[in-house]
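Q: I have two molecules that I believe assemble together. Could you output structure tokens for the complex as a whole instead of separate predictions?
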Amino acid sequence: MLSADFVIATAVGYVGLLFVLAYFGDRRARTHKKSFLHSPAVYTLSISVYCTSWTFYGAVGNAARSGLEFLTIYLGPTLVFVGWWFLLRRLVRISHLQRITSVADLLSSRFGKSNRLAVLVTCIAVVGIAPYIALQLKAVTSSIQAVAGSSEFGQGSLAGIDDVGLAFGIAAGMALFTILFGTRHVDAKEQHHGVVAAIAFEAVVKLAALVAVGIFVVYVGGGFENIFSQAAEIGITMDAENTFDARWLTTLGLSVAAIVCLPRQFQVTVVENSDENHLRVASWAFPAYMLLMSLFILPIAVFGLTRMPAGSNPDMFALTLPMAFGQDALALFAFIGGFSSATSMIILESIALSIMVSNHIIMPLVLRYSSGGSGDGQGMSRMLLIARRFSIVLILSLGFFYFFFTRDSDALAPIGLISFTAIAQFFPAVIAALFWRDASLKAATAAIAAGFVFWVWCSFLPSFESVSPRIALLMSQGPWGISWLRPEAMFGLEGLDPLAHAAFWSLSINVLTLTVVSLLTTQSALERIQASVFVDVFKRGQVARGNFVRGSATANDLFFVAERVLGERRAAALFEAEARESGVDPDMLEPSPGFIGRLERELAGSIGAASAHVMLSKVVSGSEVSLEEMMQMADETQQVIEYSQQLEKTSAELRSTAQQLEDANVQLRELDSQKDEFLSQVSHEVRTPMTSIRSFSEILLDDQDIDPGQRQHFVSTIHQESLRLTKLLDEILDLSALERGERAWDNVPIDAEAALDRALTVCEALLRQRGMKVQLGERAQRTMVEGDADRLCQVFINLISNAVKYNDSDTPLLHISSTVRAGSYVVDIADNGPGIGKRERKLIFEKFWRGPGGVADQGGAGLGLAISRQIIARMNGSLDLVQGPLPGACFRVRLTVLR
Amino acid sequence: MLLLTVFGALLVLPPLVYVFNQPIFHFGIPQIVFYLFVVWLLLIGGTALLAHAVPRDEPAESGDGDR
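A: Yes, here they are, computed for all two components at once.
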């Protein structure tokens, strides 16, 4: 049989083992940079500090009381790790670059290195975590009592000590251990390899213990199936009907926020991370760890409900079940597992919180009230350590007091959820810090404060209901009888689960405040810079780094500051490295702005960004800090860059517009020159007949004595020329009307073959006159096309007469064929004339083009082909020059056949 | 990866969970329990695959101090 004395002794021995582990882990991490302590496996295990005694004991109790709800606590973090690429990777990168030490430091650094915000976040974290610490104390206390209460002699030396005394003893012990563990020295990056090693070990222990109990339960219960069916027989079924309600959603959301914002989670996931690529492994390994953890929770809970006497505490099933079956060794292992999960949480949480308290509250106070030069070299380091030890005691006392006041409440999980709700208040600000450039300091501060006030009212206060009658009265009637201010029914929102109610109001108000105030306020220069550093962390390599431009500080002053914080050895190493780099003697070192920036980050690693900034501001450039000025400059640069980018874009647009204009201009010019050419050609064409008309008519007017034969000749010449003139003008009018589409045009079904025949008949005389042979090729049958019969005939006549006109062969030959091909009526009119040179091919359809070299006196104005082409185009066909069967030119008319 | 995260979230949130929240038992275990653990397992597997697939970052130049 186990006795309380025995388990306590075991626990103390276990902590001793942890201490040894941490000690050697630290030494090993220092000497071997590549030891397994820097491996992703240890990193993942250390993240598993998320699974506290809440998981070990509380989840079983939660599963026994409300079914599947316990799963949300692990599904939420799973989602965060599945999406590690978006959130965690960004957080880790930023924190490495900015030497972030805590979630308070992160927010303060992002929002203009404001210490006020850091103080606010720290205070909320300390208060908000108190219930969580109390939960661990309660779990350990209950587990010891479960052992003690199991038999009459189990009490041992605990006889006469109540749970408060026991919890106090545990809290005091924990405080001592944490101080011994976590505050032995101040590290630049706030990484505690020894502690992480111990935590990783504890993660293995608690997993092994829970799995062992689980396997035992499954074995004793006769398999998963039996456990569930036996439970069902005596009426224990899982009430899954109402599981997925507002509460499911709330706990899932809260756990998402918690895995990011809980101080200890931030510490292990972000601050202790030594390699970003470890996240890759943790992204699936940590969810897998949680899955293993929760695998047996449901069987243990169900089996416990079936086998344990009614009224026994379901939170303790993992411990009491093995004891009930007389398995003392397993029970002891389970106790150590639960103890492990509690100690790892308490140690890490209080280290993380103590860093926040000392960096953001105590150090700024010390900086403010200490005169510049007092204290020896080690002073600051020692001061930091003392501050941290003090903070650890404070944090554990708060946890103890919370436990003391609420010791009558029963379940573990609801206590933890109170803390989760408090910590979730940081989540909107953290997300805004990483992704929203416009989020401002005032907004973040107001949002967190507002959310906190609602949390206190709706979640924290009601947890004291069972202790204080005044609070109970307040809960039922509201302050001063104002019923819409009742903590669990704010603004008349009744009927909601208290947790969902508190989370809904506090987070809604939080997000609303953050958004609205951000939009209403403007950021300071430093905020803007930090905002872009955070939001653009993955853009464009290195973002603005040095924050001090005027290096009016001497190396001596800087060394003095560094020595006070970092200790003499590290400060000296830092300065020597810088001197080596710039190649000067350490005594002659001129601090560059880059070096000062680096120094600031180094100090920030120890005392937080805000404190480091204030501290260096005191030294650099004496009394007047030119930071604001600097920020303005940087801001202006940013604006100039943006402005020039805009200019570049605008000028590109202008360039393309100018190009378009130029193109249009070229076209216009071409058209203009075409018009000029046309006019001059028309005048030329008109002028020739006009000249002859004029001269002949003048002769006729002047000389009355011309013989009638000559007179007859002159008059007929005048007549011919005027006919030619009329024809020319007709053609020009015709062409321009065709081109502009003015002439009324009716496309009606016509027989194209008939038009071709008619044209051949008309040209017969011409052909005979020239002595031209006509070779008729293949002829299509009667083919209907859409068009104007007379116009089509005109086109054929024009083509045939051209072939006649330009043919200079001794045996002139004309080849005409017509076919129907692929729905097109095709007429080829070819001759064996000189053909058309390559250069002219493009020009022949232009106006006034007349044969090579402008052969004169061909009786036409050179408009024929241009008109023909227009006509065919109006019939939706085409007129082209093609390679024909004869050596000369071949014109092809193509029209669509009507069906 | 975004897809996986969003799908994972949708699968464990109402209304999709309602689909699987039937009083049916597989091997004596309620279907919903089975479902949640399978989704969980798939998320883990998917993330493990993706974690290998996405390009590695060059390690961040962590501050300047530790040279």
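A: One point stands out. Chain A has four domains: 4-28+35-367+389-432, 546-625, 630-740, 748-896.
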